[in-house]
Amino acid sequence: MSLPLDLPDGAQLRAARPGDEPGILARIHDLAQYEDEPDAVANTEEALTEALFGAEPRVCAHVVERAGDIVGIAIWFVTYSTWTGRHGIWLEDLFVADSERGRGFGRALIGSLASLCVERGYTRLEWTVLDWNEPAIAFYRSLDATPMDQWTTQRLTGEALRRLGEG
Length: 167
What we know:
By secondary structure, the protein is an alpha+beta fold. It has helices spanning 21-34, 45-53, 105-120, 134-142, 158-166, and strands at residues 5-6, 12-15, 60-66, 69-81, 86-96, 124-126. A hairpin with a 4-residue loop joins strand 4 (69-81) and strand 5.
């Protein structure tokens, strides 16, 4: 699948470009609200500009734009599997605005990443989903995604990260 891609209702799926940061950040805030973490987002338009389009971009985004608005996002980065010796994609965030759901935009976003994996010879497309997010889980199962039941995500942040980092 090559981008840009025309979608139903006049929407277009494409790679993010400079100027998309306000719309991407709005969807990130919507996702935080959906996940009952409305005050957790510290990201800014400036930080997104640097991460997505700076001198050394480390993250990518695909967006769905409709009627001039960013209505869906897939924020991702490349991973590496020591077991397969191949790269993959980690989908950090997938979100489609409530008013835009049911049009196939989420499927198209994930499909664009799957297509990229196939095109580049990557062996994995991975992400996490909250245990309580039954609509998302049902959607992922409809794509034949399989849960990694024996794995638990681990995270170091804040003071614990600082202590370990300072030795």
